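Appendix B. Chain record.
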Amino acid sequence: MYIIAKRFTFSASHVIGGLPEQHPCARLHGHNYEVEVVLESAELDPVGFVRDYRELSELKEFIDEKLDHRHLNDVLGHDRTTSEVLAKWLYDWCRARWHEVAAIRVSETPRTWAEYRP
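Structure tokens predicted for this chain:
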């Protein structure tokens, strides 16, 4: 299996609903997010790619337009704006474009991440 990945970044705010009032994530806060898209294929195309990295620039454009410097509660339309939920939302968007997408990983900090992989 061939595996490639590419990372993208954005900054955004959110409030996670359903938490106790004293929980820090129940208050308005933000992160410098990192998103990694992972693609897998048993075979390479005629050039030798799983997929040309340049094609993934469409994800950068989507992130820049829809997520960067936005309030995620407004973007997603609800208050369950965890990294896990965001990973699944981005996975669905990517999978609709590239059949090789295997996973999306979302990091809020350099030491934490959530991954959606069906």
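Further analysis of this model is presented in Appendix C.
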